[in-house]
Structure formats: C-alpha cells, structure tokens
Amino acid sequence: MDMNTVEKLLTTTRSVRKRLDLDREVPLDAVKSCLEMAIQAPTGSNSQQWRYLVITDPEKRKAIADLYSRSFKLYAKESAAAAPKLPPTDPRSQRMMKVVTSAVYLAENLHRVPMFIITLLEGRVEKADVLAQASFYGSSLPAAWSLMMALRANGLGSAWTTLHLRYEKEAAGILGIPDHYTQTCLLPVAYFKGEDFRPAKRVPVEQLTYLDSWGEKLW
Ligand SMILES: Cc1cc2nc3c(=O)[nH]c(=O)nc-3n(C[C@H](O)[C@H](O)[C@H](O)COP(=O)(O)O)c2cc1C
C-alpha cells in the first residue's frame, strides 16, 4: 500500500462545514462508488442490515435541516451552560470557538448543502443491553466512517452529525422510514473548497493506551 496516501486519508478526513461548496450539485453517481466501498465494512454476525437514504429533494432537505436547527439551539444552550469558564486567550477557548463557529455555520446553512446521506440499520435497541447496543451500532458506524473517507478521497466533504436524531421520529415521518429502522447518523455532503486539511491535535496515544492492566503504561 502507498502508506503516504493511507496516512493522509486517515489523518485528514475532517468534519467539513464552512468549506462545503453549497453551489455545486453532487451527481448521484459520484456517491455510488463511495457507498460500494463503505459497505465492505464489517457487521455483527455478518448481518448487513444497513440502508442508506440519499436526500437531494430541496423541500425534504429543508424539513430535516429545520429539525437539526431546532435541536442545535437546545444543544448550544446546554453546552454554553456546561462549558468551563476559560479566559478568551486560553488556547482551549480558541480551539473551542473554532468548532463552535463551524457548527453554528452548519446549523444555519444545512438546508443549502446539496446532499444528505442518512445511514440506517434495521432494528431498535433503546431497551437493549450493552452487548446488543454495541453490536447494533457497530454494524452501522464503521461503514459510515468508511463512507466519509471514501467521499473525502473523491473530493467530497462531509461532517458526522447526530443532532437531528433528537427528533428522529419526525425525520422518519418526513422521509417515510419504517418504525423498525434506526437512523444512526446524517452526513451532509458537498464538494469541498481547498485541499489543506491537516491532522487534528490529539492527546498522545502514550497517555491513552495501557498494557495488560488498567493504568499500566505501554509506552
Ligand atoms: C458521534 C458524533 C456526533 C457528532 N454530531 C455532530 C453534530 O450533530 N453536528 C456537528 O456539527 N458535528 C457533529 N460531530 C462532529 C464533531 O463535532 C467533530 O468530529 C469535532 O468537531 C472534531 O472535528 P474533526 O472531525 O475535524 O476532528 C459529531 C461527531 C461524532 C463522532
């Protein structure tokens, strides 16, 4: 494998919000090969109960974006109340402000993003135990992340979003989704502008990884 390309794809597939090209249509064929790559992901018991709902209809996008925006307003209020009070000069404040302005931009402009892809899975796990929940979401989310990377490799930006799920039932009504399907995330999809995506700052793996027993540093 060409490790430079692999590393670039894995480390620079970012949430794209402000750099989505809202004026350029995304042809349906452009996402077909991405979905074909995505569904190579694993599923529990090889069940492959996934579905993908591609939404381009402007009225449906507007209706889903309205749900998202309603949910975002509640989320913003809750997050502001819970946020630690840091001075504006603190680098953590600055990093947080970057994400906040980007998230606000998406909430205000979601209806203008030319395509949404909602990932779904057959079944419901609200009342299930951890094993069932992990098996369930683990049968949808790896493919969704593969999809984000395949889109990125094809010049298409997206951002993992979940906020519309506060109103999942209303979204299902708008889109005709049967009751026994669960929506697992919504990817707004558009061509991205610019190419300078960079790896994000993360806590070093040395601080996150243990060997044999909890807390025993590996490196
Ligand atoms: C489970 C999950 C839910 C998320 N939900 C939203 C969302 O509803 N709206 C949004 O703008 N970003 C959402 N994000 C994106 C994160 O905010 C994003 O990953 C974070 O800003 C870090 O940016 P990066 O993806 O560029 O590293 C979500 C990400 C994950 C993994």
Q: How would you state the average pLDDT, rounded? A: 95
Biggest sheet strand line-up: 1-2-4-3
Shape: globular
Residue windows where pLDDT falls under 50 for at least 5 positions: none
CATH class categorisation: Alpha Beta
- Whole-angstrom Rg: 19 Å
CATH architecture: 3-Layer(aba) Sandwich
The rounded distance between the terminal residues' Cα atoms is 27 Å
CATH superfamily: NADH Oxidase
Q: Say how many strands there are.
A: 4
- How does the helix and strand content classify structurally? alpha+beta
Number of helices: 7
Strand content: 5-15%
List SSEs in N-to-C order: HHEHHEHHEHE
Which small molecules are bound?
flavin mononucleotide
- In this structure, how is the largest beta sheet organized? 4 strands, antiparallel
Helix content: 40-55%
- Remind me, CATH topology? NADH Oxidase
Number of domains: 1
What would your notes on this structure say?
- This protein has 219 residues and is an alpha+beta fold.
- It has a single domain (3-207), classed as NADH Oxidase, CATH 3.40.109.
- It is 43% helix and 13% strand.
- It has seven helices and four strands; from the N terminus they run H-H-E-H-H-E-H-H-E-H-E.
- Helix 2 packs across helix 6, helix 3 runs antiparallel to helix 4 (91-109) and helix 3 runs antiparallel to helix 7.
- It is globular, with a radius of gyration of 19 Å.
- 25% of the residues are buried.
- The model has no long low-confidence stretch (mean pLDDT 95).
- It binds flavin mononucleotide (FMN).
- Residues 14-15, 99, 103, 106, 159-163, 200 line the site of flavin mononucleotide.
